[in-house]
Amino acid sequence: KPWNAPNPPPPMTQCNAVSFDENIEVMSRALRARNWERLPSPKVSDDFSRVLQKKLGLWHFDIFRLTSYVGGRPLVVVGDVALRHAVSKMHIEASRVRNFLDSIEARYVPNPYHNSMHGADVMNNLLYFLRL
Length: 132
Fold this sequence. Notes:
GO terms for molecular function: 3',5'-cyclic-nucleotide phosphodiesterase activity; metal ion binding. The chain has one domain (20-130). It is built from six helices and no strands. It has helices at residues 20-33, 46-55, 63-69, 74-89, 94-107, 116-130.
């Protein structure tokens, strides 16, 4: 086989194939079972939250600084601030949204690129494009 020949994709097995329905069920169980108040939440003051509301959605938002400030939990913080108005308007319990965001963030594995900081950065960039 030549050195540059592509490797064939691995066969699909039950180990690496997870259906959409299975993912939804896992997320639903996590939302029902977890209580946000018992989880170690990032420490974000009201003042910082107000500043974050103004800065989120800006192209030059410093996600690295935020990640450092919130102890490596940027997705929960960005999601909480970004969705706060919609959650209030749609009468959704804020703790359920935080549980959902925490469940998503907990599924990220330590990785130099596709990690929760990248997810928070993508969310911030989405906010930027929605405001154009």
